[in-house]
Amino acid sequence: MGHHRIVFLGPPGSGKGTAAMELSAALQVPHVSTGEMFREAIRRGGPLAETAKGFIDKGQLVPDEITVQIVRLWLDERGRERGFIFDGFPRTLAQAEAFERLLAERNLPLTAVLLLDVSEEEILERILGRLSCEKCGALYHVTRVRPKLEGVCDKCGGKLIKRADDTEETVRERLRWYEQLTMDVVRYYERQGLLTRVDGNGIKDHAVEKVMVLFGLVSRRARAS
Ligand code: ADP
Ligand code: ZN
Residue 14 CA: which ligand 1 atom is closest? Predict the structure, then answer.
């Protein structure tokens, strides 16, 4: 079976993280989130991480050179294993072009690019209530996806925290950056004929199911019910 090398695009808070994780579990290919890579680097510390943190806490994008660097390291360590699903990368045209070169040099062409389309009002409501597990990164929502026990991760028992950059101000800032920069990435992949759009408004599970159907899969939740 051929490897899946997928890029998952969508505005912050569109639910692409959850959908990408479900797809990753179903296809059995690693889920690679640059945001998560940065947060992990920040937890470990170091000069590069400090620089990245300054941008992240302001809701701004980390500079392309640092971001491409962290992705290159990942590709060289694990890129050949079983494919990948990139979530949150590339976010600028420069990143998309640099990524294309990295992949071409390693003979690892993308097999699909997915865009999860969600409106701005829906996004604000989702992000402002978002909680994530300190230990495993699982996502919850104060009203929509509540854990069984308040403040505790269902999956690993870790503590649920609100990300420092999940405030209305930084969310609006991130959406502005998304509009300005990531739309170029969308058009870039559209021109290459790689892009598939998925309507992600409304119930998140529906978007996940639409994504699964694209790959001939059934989502875990649909199977369970
Ligand atoms: P969100 O999807 O809510 O923005 P992420 O976890 O994907 O959350 O990213 C958190 C932060 O990490 C971003 O706001 C940005 O500052 C930084 N980041 C993540 N991916 C990239 C990227 N590809 N380019 C630049 N900055 C990034
Ligand atoms: Zn957890």
Answer: 2
Residue that the structure tokens 């409304």 belong to: 202
pLDDT, tens digit, 9 for 90 and up, residues 48-72: 888 999 999 987 889 999 999 999 9
Locate 107 and state its tokens.
């003979």
3-state SS string for 76-145 = HHHCCCCEEEEECCCCCHHHHHHHHHHHHHCCCCCCEEEEEECCHHHHHHHHHCEEEECCCCCEEECCCE
Closest atom of ligand 1 relative to the 63 alpha carbon: 25
- Which residue's alpha carbon is at the smallest distance from atom 1 of ligand 1? 12
73 C-beta neighbours (distance < 10 Å), count? 12
195-199/4-9 β-pairing? unpaired
Q: How far apart (Å, rounded) are the C-alpha atoms in residues 132 and 70?
A: 23
Give the span between the Cα atoms of 104 and 87, in whole angstroms.
19
State the pTM of this model.
0.80
Q: Catalytic annotation on 130?
A: yes
